[in-house]
Specification:
single chain, Alpha-Beta Plaits, Calcium-transporting ATPase, cytoplasmic transduction domain A, Calcium-transporting ATPase, cytoplasmic domain N, six-stranded antiparallel beta sheet, 31 strands
């Protein structure tokens, strides 16, 4: 009964998202918490200042979303409910009150020519002040001192002193800057909103074609994904082929070919082809959902710098308010000379009491950095992690699945017992290893199947995993141990070691024991990941050392070092999980802050011990992803130096923001002390600095230039020589903007109606130029790759013959060159140099040109 009640309660708890446009100052976080937390049914309130978002966990039977919005809007916070997958709507123009206030001020500037116009400045105050008054009342009711109260006092003081024009400018500058700040925040956070809602809400059942809610689909359901659609749930392809753009999740620029048994992820785009996907997770447990959850948690966490600044701000505002009150009152009591000057000085101090820019300097920069990281396939679990990553002095790598691909191949298998033949040995190994998730296990199981031996894990009893050693299990009444030297020692065999000269150069050696008797051994090979060497060399150029921590043999570690060109500076082999932890402690003592990169369960303790732990998201285990601080959503290890550069850039931005915020405050106070207490300048310095801090932080979101992005190197170091490759990335983004996008496809006159001209527009032939042809306009959806290729052979041969009769000459007529899109001309325009795209003589037939 209690369990049923618990499930019912869990079903009633809902997480709601609200856009709060009136959230302009960190001091208003306290106001929002005081409004919502006392309400019945509210369980948790989270406020994200940079995105002006409030996240509320509440009981839907006790309090609705509308009631929460009404409570916030009583304080004039301009709150609204954010729909699933929606983004907040920001007006492109200031509201009518701000515009009217500005126009009245402009006219009032001519009061020297017509004195009564000075009253228009007071009218500007009356027009723009009501919103500030209402927010101030709400703050006073909840005993909160915020920027609105300070501005209200400043405006009231200026009016009392007869400085109507200055009071009008204070109101106008404050309201206008708030709107500009909202626009800047919206631009900075729109990408985060898209990230949080990448996966579609609907899915199509493959058997019936019925459209259903993605959240209602159970594991094992087969769904259909057509060309141009976003995959709604994680799964495995069971039918069809296609190219999938995984950039939104992993940051990879090029589409990945998918075929039966390939894994696909929610939120990625099926560019071409029709695929049937068998779901492997619920919608709420998909990779993109986990990514969004981690990013959201990271936004809610505060870095050490932010906590320190917030602590200082807590005392700064009351202290400055008391000082400004003293500056105003003491001269009046002492009947000092020029009391108006002292009152103006007090008002400037009062406006300076708001530390908005200083408090925003850290969270906005961190927010932009988290968004930038997520866009490139890096999920960082908070600002503290970025601060620690920026200080990294040494990066330690695991070997299997991190430095190497983790895609083992069985080289050889030997039996050492006359009573056990090779097939029996392989049957034992594959049956026991089929219960393990280690990369070596899958290689051994696959090797057995290639030799027509089907594993039977159901025959295995008492299966056990020994981290850093191997596995064991009972099969056919025999206790079998499989693993490295340590597993042999555990089994009680002290004579295990390399057998024979033939295995000296092999990467990894495994032993098979029946009880205490060594009955066989096997050898496996693995290769280093593409980009591993570049990653380590780039780290070295940044002044960061590298180390290899592996549980594999010394020979395997040295083989990896050889493949990397001796780039790693320290190598530690044959380590147990606890040994990796102790080595990390030693590195931290000797070198400095450490970052650990790993993918397996054996790495989890080391990932948790390091100052920063980075797990490989695609190949990594769930435990490693849970204990790590950063998750790499792809297997591109070259993103690790990029992550460190991003962390360092973020630290630089925070330092600049904090310094600029403090200097502007000091400058305004210096002017006031020097006899120039300018109230409007103090307001401009306060809200203007907030805007500059946001804009400066947004520079972290800048991406690579257009040409650099179009022509960067593939993961296999093959230079782009295809306009279709350059085109595909552009057209994908354009397709998201509108359904139909025209392209020009150049075809032969006698074959422009041939469908193969469209189907195989990205097929490359070995020639230097295309023949003349007619320009025909088609839809983009007709030119993607991955369609049936059986009828393409004769077409390619015909085109090749035509190409060979034509020379790529710069003396061709301009019209002919424009029509045929000569490699010498248009390729250079796409990729900056003729050699980069035309050097190999490979061109596209027909050429695809953005319309």
């Amino acid at each position: 009964m209690a369990s049923e009640e618990g499930k019912t309660m869990e079903g009633r708890i809902h997480k709601s998202y609200f856009d709060v446009l009136g959230l302009c100052c960190p001091s208003e976080v306290l106001l929002i918490e005081k409004i919502l937390k006392p309400l019945e049914g509210i369980q948790k309130v989270s406020v994200i200042i940079p995105s002006k978002t409030v996240i509320v966990l509440h009981d839907t039977l006790q309090i609705s979303q509308l009631q929460i919005v009404n409570a916030l809007n009583e304080a004039r916070l301009e709150a609204s409910i954010r729909a699933d997958g929606g983004q907040k709507i920001i007006s492109k123009w200031p509201n009518s009150y701000i515009i009217a206030c500005g126009l009245l001020l402009i006219v009032s500037l001519f009061h020297k020519f017509f004195h009564p116009l000075k009253w228009l400045a007071l009218a500007a105050v009356v027009v723009g002040l009501p919103q500030i008054i209402m927010r101030s009342i709400a703050a006073i009711r909840r005993c909160t001192l915020d920027i609105n109260i300070l501005m209200l006092i400043a405006v009231g003081g200026a009016v009392a002193l007869g400085d109507y024009l200055e009071a009008g400018f204070v109101v106008f500058l404050f309201t206008m800057a708030e709107w500009l700040e909202s626009m800047a925040s919206h631009k900075a956070t729109s990408g985060m909103a898209a990230l949080m809602s990448m996966a579609p809400q609907k899915a199509i059942l493959a058997d019936t074609g019925q459209v259903v809610n993605a959240k209602d689909i159970k594991v094992g359901t087969v769904i259909a994904v057509k060309a141009g659609e976003v995959i709604p749930i994680d799964g495995i392809v069971v039918e069809g082929r296609g190219d999938v753009d995984e950039r939104s999740l992993t940051g990879e620029s090029f589409p990945i070919a998918k075929q039966p048994q390939s894994l696909v992820w929610a939120g990625t785009l099926n560019i071409d082809g029709y695929i049937s996907v068998k779901t492997t997770a619920l919608a709420e447990h998909s990779a993109v959902a986990k990514m969004a959850m981690l990013v959201e948690e990271a936004q809610n966490s505060r870095s050490r710098t932010q906590r320190m600044i917030d602590s200082c701000a807590k005392y700064y505002t009351p202290a400055v308010v008391l000082i400004s009150a003293g500056v105003a009152v003491v001269p009046l009591v002492m009947r000092a000379h020029n009391q108006k000057h002292w009152l103006q000085f007090a008002l400037v101090l009062l406006v300076s009491a708001c530390p908005c820019a200083l408090v925003l300097s850290t969270p906005v920069a961190i927010f932009c950095a988290l968004l930038k990281a997520a866009r490139t396939g890096l999920v960082v679990k908070g600002g503290d992690i970025l601060e620690a990553l920026a200080k990294t002095k040494i990066v330690a790598f695991d070997k299997t699945g991190t430095i190497t691909k983790g895609e083992f191949t069985v080289v050889e298998l030997w039996t050492l017992s006359n009573d056990v033949n090779t097939n029996t040995l392989l049957f034992w190994i594959s049956s026991i290893e089929s219960k393990s998730s280690h990369p070596m296990a899958s290689a051994l199981v696959n090797h057995a199947r290639l030799n027509s031996i089907e594993p039977k894990p159901e025959l295995v009893n008492d299966f056990q995993i020994y981290p850093g050693e191997g596995v064991s299990g009972d099969i056919n009444g025999k206790k079998i141990y499989i693993g490295n030297k340590r597993i042999a020692m555990r089994a009680g065999c002290m004579e295990a070691g390399p057998v024979g000269e033939e295995i000296k150069e092999v990467v990894t050696v495994g032993y098979v024991l029946m009880g205490t008797l060594l009955v066989g051994f096997f050898t496996l090979s693995d290769t280093c990941r593409t980009g591993a060497k570049e990653c380590i060399e780039e780290l070295k150029s940044m002044g960061i050392k590298s180390a290899l921590l592996t549980g594999d043999s010394v020979a395997a570690a040295m083989q990896a070092q050889k493949q990397l060109g001796d780039a790693i500076e320290e190598i530690h082999a044959e380590l147990l999980p606890e040994d990796k932890v102790s080595r990390l402690s030693d590195l931290k003592t000797r070198v400095g802050p450490t970052t650990m990169v790993g993918d397996g369960m054996n790495d989890a303790p080391a990932l948790a011990k390091a100052d920063v732990g980075i797990s490989m998201g695609v190949s990594g285990s769930a435990v490693a992803m849970e204990t790590s601080h950063i998750t790499l959503m792809s297997n591109d290890i070259r993103k690790i130096p990029k992550a460190i550069r991003l962390a360092r850039s973020t630290q630089s931005k925070i330092i600049v923001n904090v310094t600029f915020s403090i200097v502007t405050k000091i400058a305004i106070l210096g002017l006031a002390i020097g006899g120039h207490p300018l109230l409007w300048a103090a307001v401009l310095a306060d809200v203007g600095t907030c805007l500059i801090v946001i804009l400066n932080s947004m520079m972290l979101l800048q991406t690579k230039g257009y040409k650099e992005k179009q022509c960067h190197t593939r993961s296999n170091n093959h230079k782009i020589n295809s306009p279709a490759q350059c085109f595909q990335e552009q057209a994908t983004s354009k397709l998201k903007a509108r359904d139909e996008h025209s392209v020009k496809i150049v075809c032969e006159e006698d074959s422009h109606r041939d469908e193969s001209c469209l189907k195989h527009s990205s097929e490359a032939v070995d020639c230097g130029e295309k023949p003349d042809g007619d320009e025909i306009v088609f839809k983009t959806s007709n030119i993607w790759r991955g369609v049936v290729k059986e009828d393409a052979g004769s077409y390619r041969e015909r085109k090749k013959e035509d190409c060979q009769r034509t020379e790529c000459s710069s003396l061709q007529a301009g019209k002919n060159k424009r029509q045929t899109g000569a490699c010498c001309r248009s390729y250079r325009k796409e990729c900056m140099s003729r050699e980069a795209c035309c050097g190999s003589g490979m061109i596209q037939v027909p050429e695809i040109i953005i319309d």
